Amino acid sequence: xxxxxxxxxxxxxxxxxxxxxxxxxxxxxxxxxxxxxxxxxxxxxxxxxxxxxxxxxxxxxxxxxxxxxxxxxxxxxxxxxxxxxxxxxxxxxxxxxxxxxxxxxxxxxxxxxxxxxxxxxxxxxxxxxxxxxxxxxxxxxxxxxxxxxxxxxxxxxxxxxxxxxxxxxxxxxxxxxxxxxxxxxxxxxxxxxxxxxxxxxxxxxxxxxxxxxxxxxxxxxxxxxxxxxxxxxxxxxxxxxxxxxxxxxxxxxxxxxxxxxxxxxxxxxxxxxxxxxxxxxxxxxxxxxxxxxxxxxxxxxxxxxxxxxxxxxxxxxxxxxxxxxxxxxxxxxxxxxxxxxxxxxxxxxxxxxxxxxxxxxxxxxxxxxxxxxxxxxxxxxxxxxxxxxxxxxxxxxxxxxxxxxx
Length: 406
Known about the structure:
Distance between the termini: 27 Å
Strand content: under 5%
Order of helices and strands: HHHHHHHHHHHHHHHH
Low-confidence stretches: 386-406
Structural class: mainly alpha
């Protein structure tokens, strides 16, 4: 495997900061709910608000920030994240917390699609999925470290201190991106209507729903991971390493998927991932319904859940880029919006079903995973890799909206 360029690693560092911001709340959800005097289901909706705001703001911010130099945009987005987390840490009540989560979503929506598009643009065609996997890998490493560390901080310090530390992390990453990333010009301003016109492309329109349904199935209940673990008999002492196993699986699944999609094609990778997700969620449903309290099995299920959740993202991005190779930045942004909308809908569904019964929420997610398999089988030819030509060998080679380093 060729050496990963430092600029790609820096983009992954930035998405690690974004992911820590997005995922750390799951680690101390019960403590935050108690402090703000709301139920765990209501507190978990802060993740829904973040995801909805991200999905709506991503295309809008891409339009209004198009002309900004890429380095300035990515650095500024991380600064916004730092300020938003500081605001969340100081929030006196639930309403203020929700407002700061919207601000955090704005920072994430400005950073993540741009980072993915730049990574794809700078990578050779045969390494494109691997580069995307490194950038997405920042998010998955954040699930491996951010959530269990948030859980530890919530128990040893308090959730406000934990969010303050996330703010510091975002600020440090902003300095790192500013120092290491090459200067890159902005893009010509593309009207929002033109950006959304990519949805009329048959391949894009067919591929995107799988991102939405897939994240509904895979990630919707992750905000409630701690209550689910307690339903399986996990103790406060075991929660942290169980959450770490989820993140370890997420990192491994994402990295394996990137290389596998380049070698074997994204459809085979997605088929394997969704089959594993269906089996994992079905096993979770059975274990909670039977009241089975066996920590080794719970650990194995968390590992498989993380791997099968983050197995899908690099392959889906590759399918979209192959479907519309001249619109890489647009389709990566649309995929991010679909991803976060899926998280929002899944989290909202989980918040409704979890208070009824944990097996009901898990069973609904398992059914959605099976639906993903059926949808993939029906649309497997959408987004097939196109033959390489001078115009398509590099997704930004001839596109006037490209962001090339100076």
